[in-house]
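Supplementary Methods, section 5.1.

A reviewer requested that the exact input to the structure prediction be made available. We therefore reproduce it here, unchanged from the version used in the analyses.
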Amino acid sequence: MKLFAPQNIFTSIFQTILPEGIEIINKPSSLIAKELENNTDSIALIPSLDLIKNQNLIVSSKLGLSFDGLLSQSFFYFVKGKNSFDEIFLRGDVSMNELLLTKILFQERYSSEVELVLDTSAGIEKDRNYIICGDQNYITEGFEKGISLADEISDMLELPYVNYVFTSPDREAIKYFESLIESADQKIEERIDNCVAIMNLSPQTRSFIISNIGSIYFDVLQNEKDALNELIKLVYYHGIIDDMFDVKFSS
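The structure derived from this sequence is encoded token-by-token as follows.
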């Protein structure tokens, strides 16, 4: 069985509890859903808001990747003393989630319409506001100065932020995948020290991840299902999609 997934710290942690026989293929977050067009019996871990354009995909009722705290895939970095937010530059493994939720967050919190700019330049400019997506936040330890997107969204919804969902066009494939993994959160908490020990991170960053591992959820419970539906509603209420739709959960 093939599993298409982004390459980041959190998927690396999840991979430690996968059984043998699953071929993991890493792709940028924004390209993963497209892989299911030609791999219809495979599984993909896609950004949750990619469901907007892939409403027929079956979503796991048991496994996913959600956050409810300081750990996050993406962080904001604002220029000190600068109160205007005309532009936000996006760097790293940018997905539909960062594009849409940044817009919504600034409308809700600051009554501000920001222009989003995809930044592919070599370095970071000190006079720009950024959202950086992916491991660069942890490798450079920049997260200590950043604001967690996951924390902001979970606070807005008063529910966990469902960042990624496991999906497949094939219901039987997703249910078989679910059957391979029991008690994901418990297993990961039991081995998290060993997981981060082999990562190319500073001791401080490793300690931060271990201390906050309880704010990551790989298990999907009713709370996460409700949170995903609320995320879709949020996008609808902001006029980004014309019609609400039901998430096709596996059970």
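Residues 185 and 218 are 6 Å apart (CA to CA). These observations are discussed further in the main text.
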